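[recover] target loaded
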C-alpha cells in the first residue's frame, strides 16, 4: 500500500488523467484507494462526481489542506490503503507536503516538454532530498505521447532523460481519445466510452503503466514472482 503523488509544474501534462488511471487500476486489483484532489480547479472531484456509482470504490478527499493530507497519508498507511494525490501546478505548502508524504512521486511529462529545459518539480525534489535524510523516490511518466512517435525517437528521449539522471517509467501514456473521453465525460475507462476510438488499446496501456508503477512501490511483489507460503 502506498502514497503516490502526481506533480508537475506545467499545466495540462496529464496529472489528473494519470492519477485516475492509476487509482482505477489499483482499485481493479482489489486495493482500497483514496483519491486526493489538491487542485482548486477540482477536475478530479468533478470526474469523481460524474462517474458516480462507478467510481464508488474510490474514496475522495477534496482540498484537505496540508494537515489533512498528512492525516490521510498516516491513516492510509495504518489501514493499508493506497492514497493517490493529484496536484495543481502551484508551488505552495500543499505541494511540499504532497511530495514529502509520498512513497513515490510521478511527474507526467509530454515529450515536447523535454526540450523546454528542466522540470521545476524535479529540481524541487532534488533540493528536498539534499536537505533531508529521506529518499524521495520519483519517476517521470512520459505522457500524452503521440502514438505515431517512432520507437527510435522514444529511445532517444529516454536516453536524454537518463543522461540527466532522471528515472523514467518504462511505459509511456499514449495520447488516446479514450483517455480524453474518460476525464472530459466523467467515465470509467472500462465502460461506456461509446464513440471513442479503440478503448481496448487505452485499457491495455493503462494496465501496463500501473504494473510499471507498482514495481517501484515499497513492499510490492512484481506479478508472477509470488511463491506459495
Ligand atoms: N493520454 C492522453 N490522451 C488523450 N488526452 C489526454 C491524455 N492525457 C491528458 N489528456 C487530455 O489533456 C488535457 C489535460 O489533461 P489533464 O487534465 O489530465 O492534465 P493536468 O496536468 O491535470 O492539467 P491541469 O494542469 O490543468 O491540472 C485534458 O483535456 C485531458 O483529457
Ligand atoms: Mg489536473
Amino acid at each position: 500500500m502506498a502514497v503516490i503523488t502526481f506533480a508537475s509544474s506545467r499545466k495540462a501534462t496529464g496529472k489528473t488523467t494519470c492519477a485516475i488511471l492509476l487509482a482505477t487500476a489499483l482499485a481493479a486489483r482489489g486495493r482500497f484507494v483514496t483519491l486526493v484532489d489538491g487542485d482548486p480547479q477540482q477536475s478530479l472531484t468533478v470526474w469523481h462526481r460524474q462517474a458516480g456509482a462507478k467510481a464508488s470504490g474510490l474514496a475522495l478527499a477534496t482540498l484537505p489542506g496540508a494537515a489533512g493530507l498528512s492525516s490521510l497519508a498516516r491513516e492510509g498507511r495504518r489501514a493499508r490503503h493506497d492514497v493517490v494525490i493529484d496536484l495543481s501546478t502551484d508551488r505552495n505548502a500543499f505541494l511540499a507536503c504532497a511530495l514529502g508524504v509520498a512513497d513515490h512521486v510521478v511527474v507526467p511529462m509530454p515529450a515536447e516538454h523535454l526540450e523546454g529545459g528542466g522540470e521545476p518539480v524535479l529540481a524541487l525534489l532534488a533540493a528536498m532530498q539534499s536537505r533531508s535524510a529521506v529518499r524521495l523516490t520519483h519517476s517521470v511518466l512520459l505522457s500524452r505521447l503521440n502514438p505515431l512517435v517512432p520507437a527510435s525517437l522514444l529511445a532517444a528521449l529516454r536516453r536524454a532523460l537518463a543522461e540527466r539522471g532522471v528515472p523514467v517509467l518504462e511505459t509511456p501514456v499514449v495520447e488516446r481519445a479514450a483517455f480524453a473521453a474518460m476525464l472530459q465525460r466523467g467515465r470509467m475507462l472500462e465502460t461506456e466510452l461509446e464513440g471513442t476510438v479503440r478503448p481496448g488499446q487505452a485499457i491495455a496501456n493503462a494496465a501496463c503503466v500501473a504494473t510499471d508503477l507498482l514495481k517501484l512501490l515499497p513492499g510490492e511483489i512484481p506479478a508472477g514472482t509470488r511463491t506459495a507460503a
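[recover] notes: Residues 223-229 have pLDDT under 50 and may be disordered.
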